[in-house]
From TrEMBL:
The keyword Coiled coil applies. The keyword Phosphoprotein does not apply. Residues 378-405 form a coiled coil. Residues 17-197, 215-391 form the Type I restriction modification DNA specificity domain. GO terms for biological process: DNA restriction-modification system. GO terms for molecular function: DNA binding. This is Type I restriction modification DNA specificity domain-containing protein. It comes from Flavobacterium faecale. Belongs to the type-I restriction system S methylase family. Keywords: Coiled coil, DNA-binding, Restriction system.
Length: 414
C-alpha cells in the first residue's frame, strides 16, 4: 500500500494538504449561459457603439481576453439575459466547439458585455476569483473537461458536467497568497510581452527608415545580383522521427526559422545537394498570397536538415551584396513584401512566385559599406529581441511550474 505523505490526504483529485478540501464546482460558483430561446441571429448584430460586446471563443487566448474585433449585439438582447451580463472578476469558459476548454478571467472591461451561446460565465464565487481562474486553466481541470466532453461534429460540455468537476480548495488566506503569486508571474510575463511588442515596433520603424531607397542607391534586377538559385527536393515526409528533418514553407517565418513543427523525409535518402548549410538564404516560392515570398537565413537551428521544393536557396554575388543579413532585411521590408505579392500568381489560398518573375524583380541597393551598416543595426536589434523572447519563454515555464506546485499544495505559501 502506497504511503501518504505526512500532512497530506488522498482525494479523488489526488493528494492535497490536510487542511484543503476537494470540492465540486457547484459548491463554490454558479454557472450561467445563454438560454436557447434567448439566442440571437445575424439580425441582432449591430455596429460598435449601438449595443453590447458579445464575447466569443475568438476573444479568448492564453487565459486572457482580447477585446479587439468584438461582435456587438443589440441592447434588447443584452438586457434580455441579465444573468450573463459580464463584470470584471467573472471567469468565462468555452463549452462548445473546437476550442472547448479555453478560459479567462475578465479584466479591464470598459464596455457592457454579454456572451455568445458557446461560452458560459462563472459568478457568485465563494472562492478567490483569481485562484478559480487559474484552477480552470490548469491541466487537472482541463483533463476533466477532455474526459467529459461529448464528441461528434460539435464537441459540447453541459453546465451540469462542469458543476460536477472537482477542484482543490485551500483556506481563504492561502487562496489569496496563491492568486497573488501567480498574478505576479503573469505581470512579469505581460511586461515582457509589452517590451517585445515595443521593440518590434522600433525595429519596424528602423527598417522603414534604413531601407527606404536613397538618391545614391542603385536599382538592379534580382537576376543581376544572384550567383545561383536552387529549389529543394520533392520529398515524401511525415512526422515520424528519423535522421532527415525537412524544412518546409511552414518553418520559414518573416526573417526567422520556426521549429514548432518538424517533419522528416520518408521512403528515401535525400540528395546531398538539398542539405542546408549555415547562412543559407531561403526563399518561399509557394504559399498563400499573403505568405508567399517569405525569406529567412538558416543558422544551423538543427545539426542537419534538408529543404523541400517549395523553398529556393539563393546565393548572392559578393561583388554586389555584402551579406545575407542585409538581403534578409530587404525582403522583409513592407515595400518588398508588397512587390513580391504583386508578382505572385494564383489564388488567395495557393499562390506561387515563379523563378523568371523573381529574377526580374527590381531591388534598390546601396553600396556595400552602407549595406553592412544597415545589416549590423538590424542584426543587433534581432539579437535583443531574441534575448527577450528567451526570457519570455523562461518566464512562461516558471509560471507553469508554479501552477503545478501551488495549485496542488505541493509547495505551501502559508
Amino acid at each position: 500500500m502506497e504511503m501518504v505523505k505526512t500532512g497530506y490526504k488522498q482525494t479523488e483529485i489526488g493528494l492535497i494538504p490536510e487542511d484543503w478540501e476537494a470540492v465540486m464546482v457547484r459548491d463554490v460558483v454558479t454557472i450561467n449561459g445563454r438560454i436557447g430561446f434567448r439566442g440571437y441571429t445575424i439580425k441582432d448584430i449591430v455596429k460598435e457603439g449601438y449595443g453590447a460586446i458579445s464575447l466569443s471563443p475568438s476573444n479568448i487566448k492564453d487565459g486572457k481576453i482580447n477585446y479587439k474585433n468584438c461582435t456587438y449585439i443589440s441592447w434588447f438582447k443584452y438586457e434580455e439575459s441579465p444573468e450573463i451580463k459580464i463584470q470584471n472578476g467573472d471567469v468565462i469558459l468555452v463549452k462548445t466547439g473546437s476550442t472547448f476548454g479555453k478560459s479567462a478571467l475578465v479584466k479591464n472591461l470598459v464596455e457592457k458585455a454579454t456572451l455568445n451561446p458557446q461560452v458560459v460565465v462563472f459568478k457568485s464565487m465563494k472562492i478567490n476569483n483569481q485562484l478559480f481562474s487559474y484552477l480552470v486553466y490548469a491541466n487537472d481541470f482541463q483533463n476533466q473537461i477532455i474526459s467529459a466532453v461529448v464528441g461528434g461534429a460539435i464537441p459540447t460540455l453541459s453546465q451540469e458536467q462542469i458543476y460536477n468537476f472537482q477542484i482543490p480548495l485551500p483556506p481563504l488566506p492561502e487562496q489569496q497568497a496563491i492568486a497573488e503569486a501567480l498574478s505576479d508571474a503573469d505581470a512579469w510575463i505581460e511586461s515582457l510581452e509589452q517590451l517585445i511588442a515595443k521593440k518590434r515596433l522600433l525595429k519596424q520603424g528602423a527598417m522603414q527608415e534604413l531601407l527606404s531607397p536613397k538618391k545614391d542607391w542603385e536599382v538592379r534586377k534580382l537576376g543581376d545580383i544572384i550567383l545561383s538559385n536552387q529549389l529543394g527536393g520533392n520529398y515524401a515526409n511525415s512526422d515520424s522521427y528519423n535522421e532527415y528533418p525537412l524544412i518546409k514553407m511552414g518553418n520559414i517565418q518573416r526573417g526567422s526559422i520556426s521549429l514548432k513543427k518538424i517533419e522528416y523525409i520518408s521512403g528515401t535518402i535525400p540528395s546531398k545537394k538539398d542539405l542546408l548549410h549555415f547562412n543559407d538564404f531561403l526563399f518561399n516560392t509557394r504559399n498563400t498570397i499573403d505568405l508567399v515570398g517569405k525569406v529567412s537565413i538558416w543558422r544551423n537551428e538543427l545539426p542537419k536538415a534538408y529543404f523541400n521544393s517549395n523553398l529556393m536557396r539563393i546565393t548572392f554575388k559578393p561583388e554586389f551584396i555584402s551579406s545575407n543579413v542585409f538581403m534578409n532585411a530587404v525582403f522583409n521590408s513592407k515595400y518588398q513584401i508588397q512587390k513580391l505579392k504583386d508578382i505572385a500568381t494564383g489564388t488567395t489560398s495557393v499562390a506561387a512566385i515563379y523563378t523568371r518573375d523573381l529574377l526580374g524583380l527590381e531591388i534598390y541597393i546601396p553600396n556595400k559599406k552602407e549595406q553592412t551598416r544597415i545589416g549590423t543595426i538590424l542584426s543587433d536589434m534581432d539579437l535583443e529581441l531574441e534575448a527577450l523572447m528567451q526570457q519570455l519563454e523562461k518566464a512562461r515555464q516558471i509560471k507553469q511550474g508554479m501552477m503545478q506546485e501551488l495549485l496542488t499544495g505541493r509547495i505551501r505559501l502559508i
